[in-house]
What we know:
By secondary structure, the chain is an all-alpha fold. Helix content is 43%, strand content 3%. The radius of gyration is 19 Å and the shape is globular.
Amino acid sequence: MGEKTAGPNNNSVRGFDVVDKIKSRVERLCPGVVSCADILAIIARDSVLLLDGPGWSVKLGRRDSTTASFTTANSGVIPPPTSTLDNLINRFRAQGLSSRDMVALSGAHTIGQARCVTFRDRIYNESNNIELSFALSRQRSCSAASGSSDNNEATLDIHSPGRFDLNYYRQLLNHRGLLTSDQVLYSGGSTDSLVVSYSRSLNAFYRDFVRGMVKMGDIKPLTGSNGEIRNNCRRPN
């Protein structure tokens, strides 16, 4: 069993068909050489570049896993959208990433969307450090009761959802973070100053985001004779 249907991933991550197309073309030109893990690392960098964000050198040579763990993916290692600040800090620290890395990497929410089920509790609870008009605007497509609106999507960055910029952090200053795990970055805690810094300086955000992405790409890669080069990214050989 794969990990795509684990709680934190189910109906969340998209675009696997794009990975399939890339892998297929790479395999035709250079069979058995480029791993799916490296393809994903390159895609991450190029996606940011295509949205006017920063670039960086991607280390290559990773190999693919021969196993998956549905249980581990469901164990809490992936921080949920309801995370507290302490939970975020601890989960990132467990992977060798600092609070600064965590806040900078969270800035990837300057693009993308979230489903109603992931932010319903936040927009219907006025005590949750949320600006009222923003909550009301999100409620129009996300009903208080679970049901037909569960999978309705809202952009994480309401100002410039198609650009990799600093508006995500400016939203947090105005208490317009869509997810609880977004707004806790600016809620009177230890990371407030970083949010303020990134809201004021695109260069500071880009610098720390790139450093965080490089560090994240170095987390326990399979190299050498470990793992394999998958022929199909959806399953082991």
